[in-house]
Amino acid sequence: MTSPKDLESLQRELASLAKRQGDLEDVVLEVMERRETAQERVRELTERVEAIQAKVDDATARRDAANAEIDAEAATVTKERELTVADIPEALVTLYDRIRAKQGGIGAARLYQRRCEGCRLELDITELNDVRRAAADAVVRCENCSRILVRTPDSGL
Ligand SMILES: [Zn+2]
Q1: I want to staple 96 with a disulfide (CB 3.0 to 4.6 A). Which of 1, 62, 107, 135 is the partner?
Q2: If you measure from the C-alpha of residue 145 to the centroid of ligand 1, how many angstroms do you get, rounded to a whole number?
Q3: How far is the CA of 136 from the centre of ligand 1 (A)?
Q4: Gap from CA of 73 to ligand 1 centroid (Å)
Q5: What 3 state SS string does the chain have?
Q6: 154 C-alpha to center of ligand 1: Å?
């Protein structure tokens, strides 16, 4: 049998250990709650990442399809241009390409109702008379934007 003093000491130690156990159980509960919150957040973020990834995949697929379409169209246009250029004098093609490079990709414009459709300006009477006098196969150009003017029955001449 232990002494009353030892017994008292043991009881104090037991009480202290019980309190310590209670504190640790509180810590475990808190950690479990935090873990649940973190897991919830992981699920939420994972769903968002998946949704964004689906959008990225969709946009990538649409971009690839558009690129394929553009490539196919570019190939068709290049082929058409080669066929067209074959029938046009080389000097005129060179002139057209030079103007086109300077004028934002448009080297020739329709002359429609006395107006250059390249720069949208109406030709003055002197210019119109020059165009009227020019031979049908002569290359006429807009004095304002330098583009080659394409004459049609609607040119207003
Ligand atoms: Zn013009």
Answers
A1: 107
A2: 4
A3: 19
A4: 28
A5: CCCHHHHHHHHHHHHHHHHHHHHHHHHHHHHHHHHHHHHHHHHHHHHHHHHHHHHHHHHHHHHHHHHHHHHHHHHHHHHHHHHHHHCCCHHHHHHHHHHHHHCCCCCEEEEECCEECCCCCECCHHHHHHHHHCCCCCCEECCCCCCEEEECCCCCC
A6: 16
